[in-house]
Amino acid sequence: MDSTRKEWLLNALIAGALFAVPLWACVVNEPFIITLATRIAILAIAAVGLNIALGLGGMVSFGHALYLGLGGYVAGIAAHHAFHGTEILGLPGTNQMLPIWALATVLSGLVAGVVGALSLRTSGIFFIMITLAFAQMGFFFTLSWPAYGGEDGLPIFVRNQFPGLNTARPWEMFLLAYAVLMLCLAAFAGLRAARFGAALMAIRQNPDRAAALGISPFGIKLVAFVLSGMITGLAGAMMADLTRFVSPAMMAWTVSGELIVIIILGGVGRLFGPVAGAAILVGFEVFFGGLTEHWKLWLGLVLLAVVLFARGGFIGLLAGRVRHGG
Amino acid sequence: MTLALVLEQLLNGVQFGLMLFLMSAGLTLVFGVMGLINLAHGSLYMIGAFLCAAVAAASGNFWLGLVAGIAAAAAAGALIEILVIRRLYARDHLDQVLATFALILILSEGVRMVFGPFPLYLNVPEALRGTVSLGIVEYSVYRLALIGFGLAVALGLWALIAKTRLGIRIRAGESDREMIAALGVNIRALYTIVFALGAGLAGLAGALVGAIQSVQVGMGEPVLILAFVVIVIGGIGSIRGAMVGALLVGVIDTMGRFLLPRFFATFMETSQAMGVGAALASMLIYLLMALVLIFRPKGLFPAHG
Amino acid sequence: MTPLRMTALAAMAAASLNAAQASDITVGMITTLSGGGAGLGVDVRDGFQLALDMAGEHAIKLVVEDDAQRPELAVQIAERMIQSERADILTGIIWSNLAMAVVPSTVAQDIFYLSPNAGPSALAGANCHPNYFNVAWQNDMLHEGAGAYANVLGYQNAFIMAPNYPAGTDALNGFKRYFEGNLAGELFTQVGQTDYAAEIAQIRASGADSIFIFLPGGMGISFMRQYEQSGLDMPIVSAAFTFSQDILPAVGSAALGVFNASQWSPDLDNAANVEFVAAFRAAYGRIPSLYASQGFDTANLILSAAAKADVNDRTAFREALRAADFTSVRGDFAWAPNQHPIQKVYIREVVEVDGEITNRVVGVAFEEHRAVHGENCNM
User: Fold this and answer.
1) Which one in A123, A259, B225, C323 has a CA-CA gap of 20 to 30 Å to B18?
2) DSSP codes of every residue in C198-218
3) Residue B40: its pLDDT value, please?
4) Contact state of A244 with C105 under an 8 Å Cβ cutoff
5) Do B99 and A308 touch (CB under 8 A)?
6) Per-residue confidence (pLDDT) for residue B178, from 0 to 100
């Protein structure tokens, strides 16, 4: 199919650009651009996570900021205890990214399991709202629980470590985020191509027929929701390390909204949709934020235009309509 | 803890609930008739408050401001419906969430460009200042008036939907969209009217509440989230559900903030109990909503059978 | 659309014409210009800009950007300003939580940070830093003033209330540190709360003779509105944040008579302040707030240091900042060892002057006050 080839070409271009631009910035010594690319990569990971639930499974979660924040707090709390040499629940803190990532994904997965099991009993707008309700609980909990800074948040004074890399250097932190992003994209593509992905998409398109074929909608959707939460949680841990800071603002409902915005801007259900969307959103924020204090007005207008007139998002615009049923 | 204090807190809960009802009624109506999720409902609340404050300041008359606030919100609602919302009815919830999220950004920044970054002044009308004695409770006249307003609007809304031609069409639209078009009803005009009605109610709530709160950009979003909690608990599309949900949320939130810290203070040190109690109280209504949805996945009063 | 970078471009153009200048100082201002908290950031920015305009020819290139009150955005802007704009000094942050996100890593990169508003206790104590200067106050300071003055006013039984977040806890602790009477009640409210009916009912039932509140921004407007309608008339003491000029017009007559502690007031009678207030009114058509005065002082501090030292010589420039050789609109200005001000804390009363609600100095809480957390600072 022609549009499939076009999309792969476009994907390769996006992946190449996301690597080449910071590489160039590294050569000409513009570390901020590298940091920006790292931010795009990490936001894209979070959105790849949401894309499993939203793009493949049709589950409009309006509460994925919860997992982003959970992952962030795992990184923040571990680093806090490592820095002060104190213990939490009898365990020492750590400044190693690998165990932090493992904990962040497992914890986010567990929470997503509970939230998913309860929320998937509902559908449509009720699902949107119950996922929002759980995220709001997390938001208010972190906001008013004083132990880890409450609204002030928790600074990470020294970025956590990864074996063999100096994560304090922007370029090496970028490479790490880029590698994780590529792994997550590969996982997403594999999932979509596997029988599990086919079943998930079948359920989204026609739950009754899927059930008639012997596919259990609840089980498959729950597994997808858990995977989705895990990846977003991982992104949260990395995001906290990038900004060296975690706060309840990470769990605000507007963040959940932004993750959805990223997916729509890029193209729902598209493999590289989250990457394109994250790049557009961050680029917009940086470019227009410097030009005018009313940049949010322009962001709103662009979003509105995309929803009304360019439904396939950026990738749909350039590579044509979808075949995966998104 | 005296009986008077408990009674006053109950009144506060009911008053808060009725204001939430004004917000929720429009939201639930729009969802019931058009199947649309409107995140920008809070922006209409904000517009009502800003216009009320501006006109009241210019004319010196709160009631003139109130009328202006309602009119401005309804007009803004009609305009938004014609320009944007109309294109979203056939779309899925995802597109609706995103497009109305975009509208929040546009309207908030727009209001700030017009009125500036500082909060506006809006005071309670002369006639409703001070307090009145209700037996053992000394209560604010304005808050009592808000309760009256809320009940009157609820009654009016009920009469509108049960007794008028417009109401019949709205009910028909809720149960079968194709049929009312087949009956020759101008469905486009009906949708615009329903949306403007909901917007006007939000503007009314914004103007009324604006007089005892801060009229500032962003004031609509916290109320919007609460209004969603209300209609989800009540059952989306059901006016009766919105009423029950609003009262539940209003009373539980108020009593939670009042009682939880006291409860923890019985076995904890005061400062700490206040912190823990306030933390739990702020999560309480979301907990309520999750519980309702777990046991009644379509809310307490499902609108469509 | 306001071209934020206009002044920056103008400064650059001036600099290129004026190549004789030793070296320009790039000041990055990260502040809140959109959303509900925009009023504070706008005032800091306008005060800062006014000082630059009044200075005439200067070597400062100002870059302003909106943080939308979001910590992660503030961090991103800070990195851009340091790495791309090559900023030498950052300033502008309004909120403690954003300051905690930005300041530690900024000062560690040998960039100066001058706080025109937020003063979290950690940065005054254990995490103090030679490159961090706070031109305003440490968060607790003004609340301590309110506590001390409540004794002077003879209050015996106060009800105290603040939002449930670290600055709120600091506020209540600051008040309690100096208040000698009893507490009729102590309450934490929700951050961003808009309805205070439940709290007002508890105040009514508590039998308090006075109220201390810390409810900045819209929270204070809402509370005062509702308090006015509640029929209660206990006196209120507070810190300047809840009764500063950015919100007083919106509170209106409900605020009249409230006592609030502040290091500055528009009616302070010193030459620098008289000139500042008049110039600000002429330029922007409103009475400056506390925040505007702090922005103005911050700019003048930078200008005074720029006249003495080259910013590229960090040690010399730091010494120049430490000299604090500028005329503060608050009167005398001196640094404590933790680089927070030692200052007079005034008590102001909210009054109506020529149809405008504003503040007037009625007393002094402390003659020379310094942050309590300073003892934890080893610098």
Assistant:
1) A123
2) HHHHHHHHHT-SEEEE--TTH
3) 94
4) yes
5) yes
6) 67
State pLDDT tens for residues C123-138.
898 889 999 999 999 9
Three-class secondary structure of residue C27 per DSSP:
strand
pTM recorded for the entire structure:
0.86
Q: B99 vs A304: CB contact, 8 Å cut-off?
A: yes
User: Which chain A residues contact residue C83 at CB under 8 A?
Assistant: 30-32, 35
Which 3 state secondary structure label does DSSP give B267? coil
Residue B69: both structure tokens together:
């606030």
User: Which amino acid appears at position C191 of this protein?
Assistant: V
Spatial separation of the C-alpha atoms in residues B165 and B157, rounded to whole Å: 13
Question: Could you report the per-residue pLDDT of A180-224, keeping only the tens digit for each?
Answer: 999 999 999 999 999 999 889 888 888 777 777 777 889 999 999
Residue A140 sits at the vertex; the CA angle it makes with A137 and A145, to the nearest 5 degrees, is 120
Q: Which of A140, A157, A290 sits opposite C5 (nearest CB)?
A: A290
Asked if pLDDT for residue C268 goes beyond 60, the answer is yes
What is the rounded distance in angstroms from the CA atom of residue B292 to the CA atom of residue C214? Answer: 36
Whether C6-139+268-342 shares its CATH topology with C141-265+345-376 is answered yes
Closest-CA distance, C25 to chain B, in angstroms, reads: 29
Pick the CATH number of C6-139+268-342 from 3.20.20.70, 2.170.270.10, 1.10.3720.10, 3.40.50.2300: 3.40.50.2300
Mutate to test the interface with C, among A145, A154, A293, A301 (most CBs of C within 10 A): A293
Contact (Cβ atoms closer than 8 angstroms) between residue C67 and residue C76: no
Q: What is the pLDDT of residue C339?
A: 95
Spell out the domain ranges in chain B.
8-214
Low-confidence ranges of chain A (pLDDT < 70): 1, 321-326
Structural domains of chain A sorted by starting position, each given as residue range(s) with its CATH number in brackets? 2-319 (1.10.3470)
Mutate to test the interface with C, among A28, A136, A148, A151 (most CBs of C within 10 A): A151
Question: And the tokens for A5?
Answer: 């080839």
CATH superfamily of C141-265+345-376: Response regulator (3.40.50.2300)
Note whether C197 contacts B222, CB cutoff 8 Å.
Answer: no
Which of C9, C45, C76 is the best residue to mutate to test the A interface, defined by the most A CB atoms within 10 Å of its own CB? C76
Strand boundaries in A103-235, DSSP class E = 154-155
User: Which segments of chain B have a pLDDT < 50?
Assistant: 305
pLDDT value of position A112: 97
Residues A261, B113: C-beta atoms closer than 8 Å: no
